[in-house]
Amino acid sequence: MDKIEHIGIAVKNIENSNALFAKLFGEPHYKMEDVESEGVKTSFFKVGNNKIELLEATNTDSPIAKFIAKKGEGIHHIAFDVKDIEAEILRLKSEGFVVLNEVPKQGADNKLVAFLHPKSANGVLIELCQEIDDKL
Ligand code: ZN
User: Fold this and answer.
1) Which of 62, 1, 52 is nearest to 30 (CA)?
2) Which residue of 57, 73, 82, 110 has the lowest C-beta tally within 10 Å?
């Protein structure tokens, strides 16, 4: 597993949060993207070498809607860069982690992603991501 790729923050209203985080970082977000398969609207900020992803639910079945209903707004997941997501999934399964996506799926920001169940990682939702271009 490589560096932290980004930290995901669940928000109720992404427009309001874009304005808030732009004030915090002194710079606006650099892109927004809908991930329909997840029922989320995302926006990305660069902070030095780091990235922050804001996530707003686009429907009530979205994992973000459920998260906010249960826990309120806040840090939702930590994403790590991996070079070979299939190999990492197999490795982590063999270590006893519960992998939510045995077949990686298309995530935001041109990535293949897979999540580990927070129950198997001390309550932290872990996202693995691999740049799609790495695969070609
Ligand atoms: Zn993410």
Assistant:
1) 52
2) 110
Instruction: Tell me, in angstroms, the distance from the centre of ligand 1 to residue 111's CA.
Output: 9
Residue 9 CA to ligand 1 centre (angstroms): 9
Spell out where the chain has E strands: 4-10, 31-35, 40-47, 50-57, 74-81, 105-106, 111-116, 126-131
Amino acid at 31: K
10-47 pLDDT tens trace: 999 999 999 999 999 999 999 999 988 889 999 999 99
pLDDT at 107 (0 to 100): 85
Q: Give the C-alpha separation, 21 to 127, whole Å.
A: 22
- Calculate how far, in angstroms, residue 91's C-alpha sits from the geometric centre of ligand 1: 21
Residue located via tokens 């923050």: 9
pLDDT score of 38: 85
Identify the pLDDT of residue 26. Answer: 97
